[in-house]
Amino acid sequence: MTDPAALSAVRFRGVSRHFGATRAVDGVDLDIAPGAFFAMLGPSGSGKTTCLRLIAGFEQPDAGSIEIFGAPMTGVPPYRRSVNTVFQDYALFPHMTVGANVAYGPMVRGVPRAEREARARELLALVALSGFEDRRPAQLSGGQRQRVALARALINEPKVLLLDEPLGALDLKLREQMQVELKSLQRRLGITFVFVTHDQSEALSMADRIAVFNEGRIVQVGAPDEVYERPQTRFVADFVGGSNVVEPDAAERLGLPRGLYSLRPEKIRLGEIGFAGTVETTLYQGAQRRVVVAVGSDRLAVVAPAERGPLPVGSAVRLFVPPGAAHRMEG
Amino acid sequence: MAALPIDGRDGALRRLSDRLVARPRLLVALFLAPPLLWLGVVYLGSLVALLAQSFFSIDEFSGLIVREWTLKTYGELFRPANLDIIGRTVTMAALVTLVGAVIAFPIAYYAARYARGRTKALFYLAVMLPLWSSYLVRVYAWKLILAREGILAWATERTGTTPLLDAWLALPVVGGPSLSISYTGTFLVFLYLWLPFMILPIQAALERVPGSLLEASADLGARPGQTLRKVILPLALPGVVAGSIFTFALTLGDYITPQIVGSSTLYIGQAVYTLQGTAGNIPLAAAFSVVPIAIMVGYLAVAKRMGAFDAL
Questions:
Q1: DSSP reduced 3-state for B108
Q2: What is the spatial distance between Cα B257 and Cα B193, in angstroms, rounded to a whole number?
Q3: Is B194 within 8 Å of B98 (Cβ atoms)?
Q4: How far apart, in whole angstroms, are the C-alpha atoms of residue A189 and residue A192?
Q5: What average pLDDT does chain B have?
Q6: A53 to chain B nearest CA, in Å?
Q7: What is the separation, in whole angstroms, between the first and last Cα of chain B?
Q8: pLDDT tens-digit series, residues A260-275
């Protein structure tokens, strides 16, 4: 947890947002440190996007308070917040050129034409789209549109940049490239980035802090390795990286003290010693194989390096759980 | 079950459908042929015939049509009496369109952005319901509403606002002996009649504007008024243009409403009606009907230049 005395870029205290009977956000406390690359991770309907919209001001909380750099945001409309958003569908204005889209922020603030056009050119250069000023959004590829949306959101020099599933619409190669670019952009600008994603690998690789959402609440906040290695709940263990959740009974059978454990598939070793089991399913993933092994009545997912050779269904294997591989969870 | 072959039936219809599936172009041609024939031959044909007629003239003594190419008939349009008719009709159509757009926009905006489920169904019903009853019945109903002894006069009397109504009626041009015998009356009825044709296209255009665009605009610092001017209106413009084409063209061509409610002055529609009927002056009637076409072409050209169709 961050030092409560330090000024948070974004601070939620007991924030709730209900839609009819649905508690989209249910009593959330949240502190995002200035300059952080913060990920809100969770399945769809977990409240992460609503939290983002609460920060942007598109939604107002039904209960609780939100502060941005110490300033209370109650009743402050989106156009008076120093926060900008990169929308999931990019939301580029189809009737304007790329240049006009990027210059929109300064334009509505009354910045003279020459000045805002020069500024738009700077921002387009920043996202490597120099010379695209006169194109229409419809003439751009998905990756280019995303860069335009990024440039447009950055032109007002926001204190916090919000990104709603920013890479969701891009193909894998472009997504990986944009992950690197976003990360380095954030480091260069020093702006607090808050991004929403349902992709745990994206959150792990980009963020320096992750909040895991489930059913309108934050279930765990921490650094990526912390969330990955030491999940606090069954949900986090399962959602972040598909860990084995070992129930108390099964734990005893594996020789662990009775309790609920998270056991990462890559920590289990297939070898000559350990528990005897049978391969139930096997999934080839290039560098590795993901195998489900039945040990008695228990099922464990195991990741084996591909060079270990094929593991046909039904073959007998032995599982070794190194000491300390299992992480005990609260519940 | 297993004994049934996959192609159990082998009728002529089946063979036809197989052939059509294999040749999508033929299918499209079959679908398009009737409307294209209708548009190309019947509609465009009559339009050309009409245009041709307008370049003939009438012999003023015999009343017979002289089939020689001349611009004489178009010259007649510029007589003061005829210019008067054109000016009156165009002004009326423009006012109905303008005021119609101003009234329709908030209604369409509400329907597109806020109405959901049952409210939306109610909206459609409310907009379309008047179209279910006869046009003539509605116009006559308005005559009764607006008449000297009508419900409106009664209401002003009961609310003590009769002086207001009288003051309006005492105004030059828009006034008259009663609302049902004034330009104001004609205007109100036109406005009522064509409003659905303005609301629906605007609503359809607004419906296509993603909510995220409005949020993006606010996010970037635009106040609601700026979002309206810079994002909503430009994107709704094709709808407004479509709606204004409807209302403008419908008002330009109407010859019944001004006959029932109004100050018994002529509009283009009535002029065409009289000229081709009792007067037997087909060339002038044709020339008159070219006026709305010319105006619409000019209007569309201006709208296109203003970028009304860029977002299509």
A1: helix
A2: 10
A3: no
A4: 9
A5: 87
A6: 10
A7: 52
A8: 999 999 889 888 888 8
User: How distant, in Å, are the alpha carbons of A151, B146, B292 from that of A90?
Assistant: 11, 52, 43
Residue whose entry in the numeric block shows the structure tokens 């104001």:
B184
B307 contacts on A by Cβ (under 8 Å): 95
Contact residues on chain A for B230, CB-CB shorter than 8 A: 104, 107-108
Complex ipTM, two decimals?
0.86
Taking one residue from A and the other from B, the number of pairs with CB-CB distance under 8 angstroms is 68
Tokens of B78: 């510029």
Domains and CATH numbers, chain B: 12-44 (no CATH), 79-305 (1.10.3720.10)
Give the pLDDT of residue B311: 56
At A331 the pLDDT is: 65
Most confident range, picked from A213-217, B12-16, B261-265: A213-217
Amino acid residing at B310: D
Q: How far is residue B179's CA from residue B263's CA, in Å, rounded to a whole number?
A: 9
State the residue for tokens 């399962």: A238
Q: Which amino acid is at B130?
A: P
Q: Which domains does chain A have, with CATH numbers?
A: 10-238 (3.40.50.300), 244-320 (2.40.50.140)
Calpha distance A27→A213 (Å, rounded) = 12
Regions in chain A scoring below 50 on pLDDT? 1-2
Chain B closest-CA separation from residue A85 CA (Å): 7
Cα–Cα distance measured from residue A259 to residue A199, given in angstroms and rounded to the nearest whole number: 29
A13: three-class secondary structure by DSSP:
strand
Among residues A283, A306, A303, A280, the alpha carbon closest in space to that of A293 is found at A280
Rounded to whole angstroms, the Cα distance separating B174 from B182 reads 6
